[in-house]
């Protein structure tokens, strides 16, 4: 109960109401004390008027007047003359003087607190202004016993009233918070628990319904989060199913390609010039296909294998890619340009780099062919101080905005009908495995450019506490 939001709100409400009552209590008691003293002055003035009306008054009547006024002496100043009108001997000397004509709120509150905490009775002199123009000044002497008792009784009444007000206010606020805040929050928490039991079930996604602005915003945010998570889980499940299917297909395809590789080996002994020229390229293509199938099977078991870093001549790799894509373009008016220094050697996994460049060039070819217009694909590379930079540029139509936003996300980056959207995602992952980066450099109506950066320095861990950089 006390650890709940409504319970703590109840405690805070009672505490704050009591604090407010305490802040009101001191001025209230000070005001009560002032009214009490003014009442004694007024009674004393009435008693003195009786004496002024008849100079000869019985001593017993005088004592009764003083007793009714609850004072010992009454001094009245009229026409600039002070006169002791009524008098009886006080039990003790006068301890303090209080002039109500010049009292400020601060002094009134201070004197009230002092009187409450001082249990010893005292004789005090009180000076005030007579009512109804009854003179210039009136002064009485009185004892503080009854004054303090009246102030205590008044304080008790204030405390009881404050407690009742606090209890009623706290109860109303407790009920209001419980129904307006706690119950909607519990509904949200209940929805989160139900959703956690089966996040794939779209029926469990929260539907915002509360009227509270802040809580409604929280429900909308939760609905968005649950929707995205449900879609992500469904996509993950599809990916898992697709991975199993691809692994089975790759297994069978690898066996088929292995057989084709055995027959292709026999072509090397052929004396046909065309076979001698095409044979090595065919062997390379089949070897890469077998390697791709094996890597796909390994990917289905864990993740993309780590690159086997070798020093490779980039120009030969680019020649193979351009030759394959030129054949695939058929009769379409598509030209290829190559700007790779003949002696450029870089460190990379040759199969993985081939896959990346082949994927970029193939995407560019398909985009240009789809337009039915002429186009050009250019591959360039340069050797910088700390990195190798490879660029693939085409004169195609450019990428649409919807594709750019999720370009390197699986199943999201394809703008080709029938495309799976895996090529760029896999390519980015392969380059990242080299410690590099694949990025979209530009895309507009004039074409698209991709940029690959491969670092020359690679950090190699030697132990748990040391490492070195190699080139």
Description of the molecule:
By secondary structure, this protein is of the alpha+beta class. It folds into 3 domains: 5-171, no CATH class; 198-303, Helix Hairpins (Orthogonal Bundle), CATH 1.10.287; 305-470, 2-Layer Sandwich (Heat Shock Protein 90). The chain contains 10 helices and 14 strands. The protein has helices at residues 5-53, 59-69, 105-117, 145-197, 213-265, 273-301, 314-329, 350-371, 401-405, 423-433; strands spanning 73-78, 81-87, 94-99, 123-128, 137-143, 310-313, 334-339, 345-348, 375-383, 387-394, 437-444, 447-455, 458-461, 467-470. The protein has a 5-stranded mixed beta sheet. Strands 7-9-10-12-11 form a 5-stranded mixed beta sheet. A hairpin with a 3-residue loop joins strand 9 (375-383) and strand 10. The chain is rod-shaped. The protein starts with a helix and ends with a strand. Mean pLDDT is 80; it is low at 460-470. The chain crosses the membrane at residues 6-30, 158-181. It is found in: Cell membrane. It is a multi-pass membrane protein. It catalyses: ATP + protein L-histidine = ADP + protein N-phospho-L-histidine.
């Amino acid at each position: 109960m006390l650890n709940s939001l409504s319970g703590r709100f109840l405690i805070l409400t009672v505490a704050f109401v009591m604090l407010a009552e305490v802040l009101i209590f001191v001025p209230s008691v000070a005001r009560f004390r002032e009214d009490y003293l003014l009442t004694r002055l007024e009674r004393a003035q009435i008693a003195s008027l009786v004496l002024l009306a008849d100079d000869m008054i019985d001593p017993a009547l005088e004592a009764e007047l003083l007793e009714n006024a609850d004072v010992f002496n009454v001094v009245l100043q009229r026409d600039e003359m002070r006169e002791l009108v009524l008098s009886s001997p006080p039990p003790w000397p006068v301890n303090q003087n209080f002039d109500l004509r010049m009292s400020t709120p601060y002094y009134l509150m201070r004197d009230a607190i002092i009187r409450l905490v001082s249990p010893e009775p005292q004789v005090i002199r009180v000076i005030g202004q007579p009512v109804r123009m009854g003179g210039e000044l009136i002064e009485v002497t009185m004892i503080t016993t009854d004054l303090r008792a009246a102030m205590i009784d008044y304080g008790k009444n204030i405390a009881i009233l404050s407690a009742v007000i606090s209890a009623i206010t706290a109860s109303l606020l407790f009920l209001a918070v419980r129904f307006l805040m706690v119950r909607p929050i519990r509904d949200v928490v209940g929805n989160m628990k139900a959703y956690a039991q089966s996040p794939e079930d779209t029926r469990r996604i929260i539907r915002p319904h509360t009227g509270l602005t802040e809580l409604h915003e929280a429900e909308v945010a939760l609905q968005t989060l649950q929707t995205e998570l449900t879609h992500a889980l469904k996509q993950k499940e599809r990916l898992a199913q697709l991975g199993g299917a691809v692994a089975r297909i790759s297994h069978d395809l690898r066996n088929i390609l292995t057989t084709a590789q055995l027959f292709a080996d026999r072509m090397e002994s052929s004396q046909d010039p065309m076979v001698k020229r095409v044979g090595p390229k065919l062997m390379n293509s089949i070897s890469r296909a077998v390697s791709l199938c094996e890597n796909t099977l390994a990917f289905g078991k864990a993740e993309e294998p780590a690159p086997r870093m070798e020093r490779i001549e980039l120009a030969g790799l680019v020649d193979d890619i351009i030759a394959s894509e030129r054949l695939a373009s058929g009769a379409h008016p598509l030209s290829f340009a190559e700007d790779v220094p003949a002696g450029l050697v870089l460190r990379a996994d040759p199969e993985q780099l081939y896959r990346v460049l082949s994927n970029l060039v193939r995407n560019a070819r398909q985009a240009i062919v789809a337009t039915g217009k002429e186009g050009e694909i250019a591959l360039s590379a340069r050797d910088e101080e700390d990195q190798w930079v490879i660029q693939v540029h085409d004169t195609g139509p450019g990428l649409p905005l919807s594709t750019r936003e999720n370009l390197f996300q699986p199943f999201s980056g394809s703008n080709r009908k029938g495309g799976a959207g895996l090529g760029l995602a896999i390519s980015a992952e392969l380059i990242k495995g080299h410690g590099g980066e694949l990025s979209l450099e530009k895309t507009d109506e004039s074409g698209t450019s991709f940029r690959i950066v491969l670092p020359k320095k690679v950090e190699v861990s030697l132990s748990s506490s040391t490492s070195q950089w190699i080139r």
